[in-house]
Specification:
Strand order of the largest sheet: 1-30-27-26
Order of helices and strands: EEEEEEEEEEEEEEEEEEEEEEEEEEEEEE
Number of strands: 30
Oligomer: single chain
Structural class: mainly beta
Number of helices: 0
Largest sheet: 4 strands, antiparallel
Strand content: 35-45%
């Protein structure tokens, strides 16, 4: 008999199975914690935690929430979970947040304490808050996009100055990419990063090879001269890393590039007839979902280009997110609405001065909903 005992059973991971032929099942509805200072607040963006069922979302007005509310001093521009973050491993249970006019914060997701900070300082010695954040797959590098540049930090050395990469050689130059770097994403299978600018131009997406010294762009992408628009999101396909997806401002589609055959131009995957900003891919890279302003979630099978639709909310859905290892999707719903009342003026009886009443927006259907897409109804 082996004194060491029986060998532990090997764990085999299987990808989640989605069944869109059955009606999605609403498993949980999460309501935002009330905020007396901002009663018309709603969730703007949400992300699942990869190693557990926790999620992180930001609201329109200066709040980040996991199990508790983490109020900030100014609006939150972007946030990102640390790769492999897990509530069972306290050292990794953290995320970064970009807060306006503040250094980038690495926050503990359990209690909100500041673990580290990373400063981007402009030529006038002011703190610059990046509009986009992304980690390298191993979590050792942090990439931050801001005006006509992105900066790379060594996560383990928060006091050190980052490496700045200018996306345009000079302010008056027409070369390169100009404007706010609104999105960046690290390639899953190579040491390269894709960046996109919010400024409309024919070629406002660039792929940088991080192994070169200095870091230089390897190629430029875009919608071309006739359809240029600002980039809102970039994502690589997790299982087919040669595929890059992008969404744009004032465009109703998600576009895809096969980096192996750039001569064919981008392929438009979705057409909703309405403007969209964010989309989500499942872990297998087969399913893509986007929220619609009419309260529906649209899902595309990227292998067949078929479209599925199901109702999620009564009002607009600004963001959806797939669960990292289960057949579930999270939807954020809500938006600002103004009263239809026409009584917008009042009279001051003392001096007879007509004063216009300021209409305050209200938030409707403010919630986060978790949907089971496995087809199981039990």
């Amino acid at each position: 008999m082996d004194a060491s005992g029986p060998a532990p059973a090997e764990f085999t991971w299987t990808s989640p199975t989605f069944d869109f032929s059955a009606k999605p099942k609403l498993t949980e509805t999460l309501s935002l914690q009330p905020d007396s200072e901002s009663p018309h607040n709603f969730a703007r963006k949400s992300l699942w935690l990869v190693a557990s069922n926790f999620l992180l979302y930001t609201t329109l007005y200066m709040r980040a929430e996991t199990q508790s509310t983490l109020p900030q001093s100014a609006p939150i521009l972007d946030f990102a979970w640390y790769p492999g973050a897990s509530s069972s491993t306290p050292a990794t249970y953290c995320f970064v947040a970009s807060v306006r006019e503040c250094p980038i914060k690495l926050l503990d997701a359990a209690d909100g304490r500041l673990r580290a900070s990373y400063s981007i300082v402009d030529h006038r010695e002011r703190q610059v808050a990046p509009h986009s954040l992304a980690f390298s797959p191993g979590g050792d590098k942090l990439f931050c996009g801001f005006d006509s540049a992105f900066e790379m930090f060594n996560v383990g050395s928060p006091g050190e100055q980052g490496v700045r990469v200018l996306t345009s050689p000079a302010k008056k130059s027409r070369d390169g990419i100009k404007g706010i770097i609104s999105s960046l994403t690290h390639a899953p299978a190579s040491n390269s990063i894709a960046i996109g600018s919010l400024t409309p131009s024919p070629w406002n997406i660039a792929l940088y090879d991080l192994d070169t010294e200095p870091v230089t762009p390897a190629m430029y992408l875009g919608l071309g001269e006739t359809a240029s628009a600002g980039v809102t999101q970039l994502t690589f396909n997790p299982t087919s890393p040669h595929l890059l997806y992008a969404s744009f401002r004032r465009r109703d589609g998600v576009y895809a590039w096969d980096l192996r055959y750039l001569g064919e131009g981008p392929l438009c995957i979705t057409r909703l007839g309405t403007l969209l900003r964010y989309f989500s891919l499942d872990v297998t890279g087969r399913w893509m979902s986007v929220g619609h302003q009419d309260g529906n979630i649209h899902t595309w099978d990227l292998t067949t280009a078929s479209d599925e639709e199901h109702s999620s909310a009564s009002y607009s859905i600004p963001n959806v997110a797939y669960h990292p290892f289960e057949a579930k999707v999270l939807s954020c719903s809500g938006g600002r609405h103004f009263s239809d009342s026409t009584d917008s003026e009042s009279s001051d009886e003392e001096d007879g001065v007509q004063r216009r009443r300021v209409l305050q927006p209200i938030a409707r259907d403010v919630s986060l909903k978790i949907w089971d897409l496995s087809g199981r109804q039990s």
